[in-house]
């Protein structure tokens, strides 16, 4: 191999790119990873919590060593209006069982740790350089143009995130559709660990994941999220881009109002904002997956649209890890066969089909459309829950009416048939 030709070039040092690079270097391949941020994690954002299963397969027991924040053992889901919050609170130690556990993380530190692992395995990481273009000869991707440099490799892995301009340049996808992506804004709010444990009823290193529908996204498709870290809270909102423009509130304003909601404000009281970030989330699932295999090139992670948001859980990072693993396996096979053609690399698609990545994306393929078609979830249902519970719990000293009548009064505002239809469509899409 010539000095300036690598086995693999990975574009993007997020979770997908770093895991792909790590796995290839571990098998002895010469791998270079180019990241436009000044260090791994500097440009990356998540809610967030990582479901451990896919990384656990690659790095058993990683959570003992990695800078994870808290093991999530409490799940909360809320329907929120401007003055109320109705919450389902699920605590179970089963949520923390190794292999099916999940952890709140902060990408700034987590991605750096992952990058160190990749470097230890032999990956050459070049931070602070953006890949501007791909070198294409006779229909084959032969490398990248990064700043002044041209780097060549047998395979280029695009792990450049949701807005993969390189996949777009290759013609693998068009412009992102506004109803396929959501805009997220997040604050990290510092608080002493003991305060977090008291406010969220957490034991030691255990933590809470909390998703909200309704008020946080101004009644639009999306919601709010809150994750407890060791000594901070990740608090944010996410709203589908096509829906943001229908309303009057900007996403930063939604976050500001969410922070000041009477049910949220006491949770972050006296906290200090230490980081603010914004990012797109690929949310259309199967409908937005671009072409992911070409001659000398594979696409992984968010760049391939591998992410799902089910309202009660968001999963992108475990998909990023698993797709990186499938890509690495495909590259190792291709290297053995010395065939980096699209036809041969198509085994990547096969590996994804066998894994949960494609199977889950297929299972939930109708869910994004269901959310889009059912705006009631984000406005009328939170209002109904608020009105119903207000009537149940507020005592005015007037003669009480039967609960059945109160229930029907509120249900009839939306309509029994509409509720049944929404329920049926929702269940079918899951
Ligand atoms: C608000 C929000 C909440 C979320 N919550 C969760 C959650 O709770 N759980 C979960 O599992 N997932 C969540 N996700 C999704 C998850 O964060 C993503 O799926 C995951 O980060 C994807 O990783 P990635 O490596 O594919 O992409 P990224 O982390 O976006 O990495 C892409 C990298 O490529 C680099 N790059 C881009 N272009 C170039 C270029 N031309 N040259 C060099 N480098 C380049 C970028 O700087 C970046 O480092 C959330 C996302 C958002 C935005």
From TrEMBL:
Stored InterPro entries: ETF-QO/FixC_UQ-bd (IPR049398), FAD/NAD-bd_sf (IPR036188), FixC-like (IPR039651), FixC-like_C (IPR059103)
All copies of the ETF-QO/FixC ubiquinone-binding domain together span 183-278
| Ranges of residues in domain FixC-like C-terminal | 367-429
A Pfam family the protein falls into? ETFQO_UQ-bd
- Cofactors named for this entry: FAD
If you read the UniProt record, what top EC class would you report for this enzyme, in one word?
Answer: isomerase
Q: Which NCBIfam families match?
A: PRK10015.1
Name listed for the protein in its UniProt record = Putative thiazole biosynthetic enzyme
Give the organism the record lists. Answer: bioreactor metagenome
